Amino acid sequence: MKPAELLAHLRRLAEAEAGPGVLRLPLDLPADAALEAVRAALATLEGPADRPAPARRAPANRSPSRIHTDGAARGNPGPAGLGVAIFRADGQVLERLSRYIGQATNNVAEYRALLLALERAEALGLTDVAFYSDSELLVRQLQGRYQVKHPALRPLFAEAKARMARFRHAEIHHVPREANAEADVLANRGIDEAAKEWKLERPDADGEGRP
User: Fold this and answer.
1) Angle in degrees, CA 134, 73, 162, rounded to 5
2) Residue 57 pLDDT more than 80?
3) Lowest CB count within 10 Å: 54, 72, 155, 198, which one?
């Protein structure tokens, strides 16, 4: 409300009959003094129910769950595996995952690993998550720093962004390969275990399976 409008209201109050909630001020009261007077009066006359609610205190910062992902492809494309290691903020292990996905490129495997991690994090009920990958392309694309040019990556990128948006807080970071060793081991384990099964199932020339 402008000072002139407020003064007009105050003058009408001054001319009104006395009663509950009526603020009486002298007609010759200067505008600045009238403003100060009404501010002080409002604090008393309006009562607690009409006062603005106190500002809500921001919730304490929650440390996100730490999730490492890696995709490995032996050849480009070639046999590919996924590795995911999920930890609580206090370092407790929640899950370690190792999967084989068949033939894929390195970049597709990296995205597939992240999507598996997002799926499991949501299933575990995690709300604040931080993902770590040694794929600079993956991380920079999801951070909006690189464009997604390859057609095969565009749907994977879109799905990853949509899934990340479901969390209360989600972030992604690039780390050097040595800082992502556990996820790398898991990804390669997926390929190795699939290779072992393939060797066991593949018949020899004499028709006998390998031992």
Assistant:
1) 60
2) no
3) 54
Angle, helix 106-123 to helix 154-164, in steps of 10 degrees? 20
In a domain, 59, yes or no: no
Question: What are the backbone angles phi and psi of residue 112, rounded to the nearest 5°?
Answer: -65, -35
Q: Which residues contact 135 (CB under 8 A, 6 or more apart)?
A: 70, 71, 106, 107, 110, 174
In this structure, the answer to whether residues 40 and 79 fall within a common structural domain is no
Q: Output phi, psi for 63, to 5 deg.
A: -75, 130
Q: For residue 43, is it left (φ>0), alpha (ψ between -120 and 50) or beta?
A: alpha
| Same structural domain, 40 and 136 | no
Q: How many residues does the chain have?
A: 211
Indicate if 119 and 145 belong to the same structural domain. Answer: yes
Read off the pTM. Answer: 0.67
Query: With bands split at pLDDT 50, 70 and 90, how would you rate the model's confidence at 181?
Result: very high
Q: How many whole angstroms separate alpha carbon 55 and alpha carbon 195?
A: 60
